[in-house]
Amino acid sequence: MLLSLTNAPRDYAWGSDSLLAGLEGRTPTGAPEAEVWFGDHPGDPADVAGGGTLDQITGGTLPYLLKLLAAGGPLSIQVHPTIAQARDGWARESGLAADDPQRNYRDDNHKPELIVALSERFESLSGLRPVKDTLALLDLLDDSDGVAQLRARLGGGADELRDAIGWLLGGDVQREVDEIIAAVVRAAERTDTGEWGTTLSAIAGVAANYPGDPGVVVALLMNHVVLRRGEGVFLRAGLLHAYLSGLGVEIMAASDNVLRGGLTPKRIDVPELLAILDPTPGEVPVLRPAEGDAVTVYPVPVPDFALSRVTVEGAPITVEVSGPTMVLATAGAITVTSSSGEEVQVPVGSVAFAGGDESMLTVSGEGEAFVAGPGR
Predict the structure, then answer these.
(1) Which of 32, 85, 204, 232 is deepest in the core (most CB within 10 A)?
(2) Coil, helix or strand for 284?
(3) Which of 140, 67, 9 is nearest to 305 (CA)?
(4) What pLDDT digit, counting tens, does each position of 64-94 carry?
């Protein structure tokens, strides 16, 4: 069984007004278009050609959610729980209504994510930077009480990053936050900041979108990661992250559990954020495609999903699949054929969906597609 899936873009304020339209070769609407969901999540199940939605076919059992994501501005800084943390939080909040503003947990699942860049440049904040490197960055800022206090909080202790984030988000240090942001903006205007120039410019851009937000200083503690087209990063549970700009393919476990850490008007539960945060600093590995390979597999250490990129330039490419599978076209003219000979043409920005009875799918034509399915 092969089905054709589409969906309408979600109009979150941070969405781009041109990236999705450019991908699909249509005229921009003028409104922000942030995400297109391909899955059976009850929040926005994909539309099936001919009528109905995907959840009516799957019963809402897909373990993953595939998206196109188009960031025209920074998303909120966020972190997702482990399965154990999600189950505990879900149980603790069982007495709250689903729409209660005090609710943090929407389900009892974890939400690891993988993002792969489709634009030539995709900027993100991924994980916390090693403290010694952040101290080197702070040395480039003007001396002020706010900067000095942040530096002192990073001067020692096994949990210094968690403590610093709690201090910034606690609501009592707005003057210090403002001083640090002002120092970042001034430093970004200089030409002698060396390797830190790109990072300072990125954080100054975040500040322009969210003036006075303590999350801007939290962003200053994070790794600024720039992906090129085809490169990706995996974001494990507990890892602080935020996307800043660009177009990408995103896949995640089927969950809506998000704890926010700034750059948002939404509620921030600081104690719960700090409880599930993994403050271990370090670079997040960039997953890079091998030069010239027709199929790139993006390895992830979770069983919820798997993702690979297929580039077709002549001969058809057959891929093994296991379980319900999606083929998302992202360039050119793509056709998907099942092992029984059923065939579906897949316009750019839409999906061919194969039920769990397929073991092989063939991608033909000329272009690019991403194949998503359960992990193995």
Answers:
(1) 232
(2) coil
(3) 67
(4) 999 999 999 999 999 999 999 999 999 999 9
The type of residue at 64 is Y
Complete domains list, the chain, with CATH: 7-125+227-287 (2.60.120.10), 132-209 (no CATH), 298-373 (2.60.120.10)
pTM: 0.95
What 8-state DSSP symbol labels residue 303? S
The answer to whether the beta carbons of residues 353 and 54 sit under 8 Å apart is yes
- 33: helix, strand or coil: strand
pLDDT confidence tier of residue 357, bands split at 50, 70 and 90: confident
Among 129, 162, 260, 309, which one carries the catalytic annotation?
260
Residues 6+ apart with CB under 8 A from 268: 169, 260, 261, 262
The yes-or-no answer on residue 260 being catalytic is yes
> At CA 110, angle to CA 108 and CA 116, rounded to 5?
145
Burial class (CB in 10 A: 0-12, 13-18, 19+), 223: buried
